[in-house]
Design brief:
Elements: H1 2-51, E1 57-64, E2 67-74, H2 79-90, E3 98-100, E4 121-125, H3 129-135, H4 140-152, H5 160-166, E5 190-195, E6 200-206, E7 211-215, E8 220-224, E9 230-236, E10 239-248, E11 256-263, H6 267-275
Parallel strand pairs: 1-4
Antiparallel strand pairs: 1-2, 3-4, 5-6, 5-11, 6-7, 7-8, 9-10, 10-11
GO molecular function: cadherin binding; RNA binding
InterPro entries: UBFD1, UBFD1_C, Ubiquitin-like_dom, Ubiquitin-like_domsf
Domain Ubiquitin-like: 58-125
């Protein structure tokens, strides 16, 4: 009887062992799966960290109007964002900025991809709104004359402000004008015109960049089309093949930049290009 009881006990122990083994195997498999998942998550995290470009703040020198400015910028910052940063520092609208470093920098580039490193010198070309308005600045006396002429509805070419320019005669190198005609803008700049000081003026229409380049002997202003509020023009008496044209660069009429001897056949095309064809002239 004792031996039978011992055999039963042994069978029971054997069954318990058999029952424990599968559970033990499952636990080991689960541990292996958890270990692999942990390793994968760790690997994914490392991959993400490797994909992210490390950001670094570097100091560069921006050269503008012969002055140098120390500026700190993140290496992952885009050139377009850097321009906005410079707008706050120098007052030059980002849309009127050109940045040069081993060539013209594009807005979509980053500081790092442009090859800019610590201590690099970046050239800034552009004009502040004050610079643009200074080009068209008028004296108090001229404002008074304009108000008088406006009230009297006197033709532009008869007003004292304009007459002193027109009395000098038609410029020798002016482009041929055609009255009562409308032509598209030519593929080359309009030249031979003068401003109120008698200085030569050249207009270049950069339609692909939505800019009007206003050039004199001393400087070139790259004006966004949207910065020109209005354009007024009027034929010159006894020379109707040419117009007086005023580009309004600010909120008031006093900010008009006057151009004389503009070929009449291009007036409508100029207004269409700058203000849009929806304007009523």
């Amino acid at each position: 009887m004792g031996s039978v009881g011992t055999e039963s006990e042994n069978q029971a122990v054997s069954l318990e062992d058999n029952c424990e083994k599968p559970n033990s195997s499952v636990e080991k498999v689960e541990e292996q799966i958890e270990s692999k998942v942990t390793e994968q998550e760790s690997g994914d995290s490392t991959a993400i960290q490797q994909d992210e470009e490390p950001s670094e703040l570097i100091d560069v020198k921006v050269v503008y109007n012969k002055n140098k400015y120390d500026v700190s910028v993140a290496t992952i910052a885009k050139i377009g964002d850097f321009k906005k940063q410079l707008q706050g520092l120098l007052g030059v609208p980002d849309s009127m900025q050109k940045l040069m470093y081993k060539g013209l920098l594009q807005d979509s580039q980053t500081i790092k991809s442009s090859g800019i490193t610590k201590g690099a010198k970046i050239m800034l070309v552009g004009s502040t709104l004050n610079d643009v308005l200074e080009v068209s600045s008028v004296t108090k006396e001229e404002v008074v004359e304009l108000e008088k002429a406006s009230n009297a509805k006197e033709p532009l070419c008869k007003q004292k402000l304009h007459k002193k320019v027109l009395d000098k005669g038609v410029p020798e190198d002016v482009m041929p004008g055609i009255k009562n005609s409308h032509e598209s803008l030519p593929p080359f700049p309009l030249s031979g015109m003068v401003n109120k000081h008698g200085g030569k003026v050249r207009l270049t229409f950069k339609l692909e960049s939505d800019q009007l380049w206003l050039s004199t002997k001393d400087r070139t202003e790259k004006l966004p089309m949207g910065s020109i509020k209005n354009i007024v023009s009027e034929p010159i008496l006894e020379h109707e093949e040419y117009h007086i044209m005023g580009l309004q660069l600010g909120p008031t009429e006093a900010s008009r930049y006057w151009i004389y001897w503009v070929p009449a056949q291009f007036i409508e095309a100029i207004k269409n290009a700058v203000l849009g064809t929806w304007q009523i002239f």
